[in-house]
Design goal:
Elements lengths: L3 H7 L8 H6 L19 H17 L6 E4 L16 E4 L9
Antiparallel strand pairs: 1-2
């Protein structure tokens, strides 16, 4: 059985559509809670907006007791979808350190 790191290393960027491409094209149904233009390197200040938007969505979803924002980057960070996005985690007690 491959480790998570090996699995992430196998998921290198390609020209194939990602799960996010399929969601955007409505090929995969989803409940989109927020959608905006994709950030590029020249949009560094927009990345702050991405984090602020996560806070707005957390409030919208009733995560008043707290939440965690995760951004996976690169193979060692277990990034498997090469498209900027955040994971908003909440609704339960988070532990530290994260694993």
């Amino acid at each position: 059985m491959a480790s998570e790191k090996e699995a992430a290393l196998a998921a290198v960027p390609s020209d194939s559509p990602t799960i996010f491409d399929k969601i955007i094209s409505k090929e995969i149904p989803s409940k989109v809670v927020y959608e905006d233009d994709e950030a590029e390197e020249r949009h560094c200040e927009i990345l702050g907006r991405l984090l602020y938007t996560a806070k707005v969505v957390a409030k919208q979803e009733g995560l008043d007791d707290g939440f965690r924002i995760v951004i996976n980057d690169g193979p060692s960070g277990c990034q498997s979808v090469y498209h900027i996005h955040v994971h908003l985690l909440g609704g339960r007690q988070m532990n530290w350190p994260p694993g």
